[in-house]
């Protein structure tokens, strides 16, 4: 590929179909494998879609069609009312690759963002990010990563309105009762700012890139 970014980039893509976003992720992974030293943070919202990871359990999504992916985990839902974040960057340090450490970093990033908005967020006994409510602990964010030669992709989805909850009711998300799913009242802009700040502190400065310019330079059509 000819395109080479000159810095880490953060891009707000708006609403993007899952399959288009998946193609873009794979193109960026290949770009990094080809020698681009910088990383990417993609922020977007998906049209309604169900996906499954590397550990699917068929009875958890028997009533829906789901797209197979390489990420970790079981079945989940994406749709309007979520902020999806896809970090695409080389997380290996020399010959060392600590995937668990990176997942903890992503978890801590989400917990910090939600905490700054008054939520008591934490990692629960089950995967994802949970918040304390008057009805008990509820899951508000799902995390599922994939690693290709030390390069991470896929990522995290945060429910920021009640709208996604209807989608979760048709499945058992990650094997859980769909009633555990909840949402937080946090803006997309706040999530983007929080991720950019956190990732810049660990991986070097992330500059915000214009969506259309970014896609044009990649010769990519969504």
Model description:
With 222 residues, the chain is an alpha/beta fold. It is 28% helix and 30% strand. It contains five helices and eleven strands. The chain has helices at 18-33, 99-115, 164-168, 188-203, 211-218, and strands spanning 8-15, 40-45, 49-52, 67-68, 75-78, 82-90, 121-123, 129-133, 136-148, 151-159, 206-209. It has an eight-stranded mixed beta sheet. Helix 1 (18-33) links the parallel strand 1 (8-15) and strand 2 (40-45). Helix 2 packs across helix 4 (188-203). The longest helix has 17 residues, at 99-115. The protein is globular. The mean pLDDT is 95.
Give, in order, the helices and strands.
EHEEEEEHEEEEHHEH
Please tell me what the overall shape is. globular
The main sheet comes to:
8 strands, mixed
The low-pLDDT segments are none
Counted by DSSP, the helix tally is 5
**Spatial sequence of strands, sheet with the most strands:** 7-8-9-10-6-2-1-11
Query: Which structural class should the secondary elements be placed in?
Result: alpha/beta
Question: In total, how many beta strands?
Answer: 11
Distance between the termini: 18 Å
Radius of gyration: 17 Å
Proportion in helices: 25-40%
| Strand content range | 25-35%
| Overall pLDDT metric | 95
Can you tag this structure with a few keywords?
single chain; about 220 residues; alpha/beta; globular
Briefly characterize the structure.
Helix content is 28%, strand content 30%.
Element layout with pairings:
Layout: E1 8-15, H1 18-33, E2 40-45, E3 49-52, E4 67-68, E5 75-78, E6 82-90, H2 99-115, E7 121-123, E8 129-133, E9 136-148, E10 151-159, H3 164-168, H4 188-203, E11 206-209, H5 211-218
Parallel strand pairs: 1-2, 1-11, 3-4
Antiparallel strand pairs: 2-6, 3-5, 6-10, 7-8, 8-9, 9-10
């Amino acid at each position: 590929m000819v395109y080479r970014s000159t810095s880490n980039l953060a891009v707000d893509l708006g609403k993007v179909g899952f399959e288009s976003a998946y193609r873009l992720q794979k193109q960026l992974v290949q770009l990094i494998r080809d020698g681009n030293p910088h990383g990417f943070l993609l922020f977007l919202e998906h049209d309604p879609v169900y996906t499954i990871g590397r550990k699917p359990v068929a009875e958890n999504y028997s009533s829906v069609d789901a797209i197979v992916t390489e990420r970790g985990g079981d079945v989940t839902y994406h749709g309007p009312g979520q902020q999806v974040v896809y970090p695409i960057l080389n997380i290996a340090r020399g010959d060392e690759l600590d995937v668990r450490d990176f997942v903890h970093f992503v978890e801590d990033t989400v917990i910090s963002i939600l905490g700054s908005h008054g939520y008591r967020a934490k990692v629960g006994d089950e995967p994802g990010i949970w918040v304390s409510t008057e009805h008990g602990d509820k899951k508000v964010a799902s995390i599922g990563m994939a690693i290709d030669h030390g390069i991470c992709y896929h990522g995290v989805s945060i429910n920021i309105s009640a709208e996604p909850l209807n989608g979760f009711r048709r499945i058992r998300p990650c094997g859980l009762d769909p009633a555990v799913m909840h949402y937080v009242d946090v803006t997309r802009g706040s999530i983007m700012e929080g991720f950019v700040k956190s990732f810049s502190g660990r991986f070097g400065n992330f500059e915000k890139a214009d969506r259309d310019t970014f896609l044009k330079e990649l010769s990519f059509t969504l």
